[in-house]
Amino acid sequence: MELSFIQDENAVEQIDGILYEFPYTMHERDLGRDTIPWHWHEELEFNYAYKGSIVVETVNQAYTIRQGEAYFINTNVMNTKRKADGASVAVEHAHLFHPILLTGHYRSIYETKYLNPVLKNQSIEVMIIKEETKSGKKFLELLYALSRLNNMENQEFQIRILLSQAWLILIDEIEIQRQKHVFHASHTLERTKDILSFIHQHYQEKITVADISCHANISTKECVRSFKNTFHQTPMDYLIHYRIEQAKRLLRETDEPVTNIAFMTGFQNSAYFGKVFKKFLEVTPKEFRASCKADLTL
């Protein structure tokens, strides 16, 4: 299952497959095909690099996860994912779950004693777990077991047990890595999240840097400066990248005409859309769609 970028009114990602009755899902993500744009969500992630190497970037740091390594992403951590430079492929198995699956109910001992010390620690963003240690090897074995349960019926209890066991190992790994001083101080991200939320909500419209800075209640100069410091690109560059990613999804998943997709993703006309699309991907939108259909027939 691929990650679906559905967002609420605050641009917080709503994850496909997470249900109220059972807030867990597994996604197999091909990061060699698509970059995952900047996003955040309440759900926690226990993932591992199934094939190739992956880069997970937060506002504070970039992490490289190599094939066979696992990693944890904390709640509401803003991040983007892509294939590592030099890697021919990049596929991950991602196990996403809401904390309530393990806590059971508000202020339970599971929440206050075991989860909150991690969830409320903003210095813990991403943690890589390797097979080199006994605990790391066990952690990966648990994730492999979770992957084997994917799409099987009547496995809810087993999944919760495996996630609970993995959480206990995570706590131990956090303490081990804390002693090695691998955690970094977190910065206030509210303004950055606000800017991203505005772009994600309005990318289909004609928006300018002035619109973005006005929404964030800062000058255009400060808007560009702070955004570049965080994401190493201007807000308008990010907007175009985001529009292209949404266009790729629509080309792959729908039969909408290319002209319609151009307007649906914020481009003023199909000619300009085709020019920008080819600049980024070296193929036209029609060629991209044809290649996706060809992949499905293999």
Features:
five-stranded antiparallel sheet; disordered N terminus; 298 residues; 46% helix; globular; Jelly Rolls; alpha+beta; Arc Repressor Mutant, subunit A
Task: Explain what the structure shows.
This protein has 11 helices and 11 strands. It is α+β, with helices and mostly antiparallel strands and 298 residues long. The two termini are 18 Å apart. It has 2 domains: 174 residues, Regulatory protein AraC (Jelly Rolls, Sandwich); 108 residues, Homeodomain-like (Arc Repressor Mutant, subunit A, Orthogonal Bundle). Helix 3 packs antiparallel against helix 4.
Domains, number: 2
Mean pLDDT, to the nearest integer, reads: 90
For the largest beta-sheet, the strand count, sense and barrel status come to:
5 strands, antiparallel
* CATH fold naming of the largest domain: Jelly Rolls
What percent strand? 15-25%
Produce the secondary structure layout:
Blueprint: E1 6-7, E2 13-14, E3 24-30, E4 36-39, E5 44-52, E6 54-58, E7 62-65, E8 70-73, E9 79-83, E10 90-97, H1 100-103, H2 109-119, E11 126-129, H3 134-148, H4 156-179, H5 190-202, H6 209-216, H7 220-231, H8 235-253, H9 258-264, H10 270-281, H11 285-297
Antiparallel strand pairs: 1-2, 3-10, 4-9, 5-8, 5-10, 6-7, 6-9, 8-11
Helix pairs in contact: 3-4, 5-6, 6-7
Q: Would you summarize the structure shown here?
A:
This protein has 298 residues and is α+β, with helices and mostly antiparallel strands. It has helices at 100-103, 109-119, 134-148, 156-179, 190-202, 209-216, 220-231, 235-253, 258-264, 270-281, 285-297; strands at residues 6-7, 13-14, 24-30, 36-39, 44-52, 54-58, 62-65, 70-73, 79-83, 90-97, 126-129.
